[in-house]
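Q: Focus on the chain.
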Amino acid sequence: MKLNDLSPAEGATKNRMRVGRGVGSGKGKTAGRGVKGQKARSGVAVNGFEGGQMPIYMRLPKRGFTARNSKSHAWINLSRLAKAIEEGKLDAKNVTEETLVAAGVVNKLGDGVRLLAKGDAPKNVTITVTGASKAAIEAIEKAGGTVTVTGPKKDTAEV
């Protein structure tokens, strides 16, 4: 079998309707557009038009705001960190953002990793992250570990 031997199944394709080609064609004269009016004319797009009434997209309130300089941090909870250390994916003595990505605990760094306090803290862990909640820092220090917060990364373009 060759490509030039292939053809679509019987009845699978249908010729397009050519409109405005005489009254006998069944789609002649007005070509299925009815008589007169805005939608009978060519070059008309009436999306969102409601006949002079205020359109719904203008009646509804617009909410939300995203600052252009906002940061998107990857985040990790204490329970996820403890689980990864238990499974042997991470070494508790030296946990950094790069080791978290390499172990598959965090998918994408973005602007850094932020440590959150959900779950139980792993024992004797040393972790370096961009940010951490106060509760997460307290929980890790209570469990005999240390947290180093490096703060937001500086843009190289600003220097």
About this structure: DSSP finds four helices and five strands in the chain. The chain has a mean pLDDT of 87.
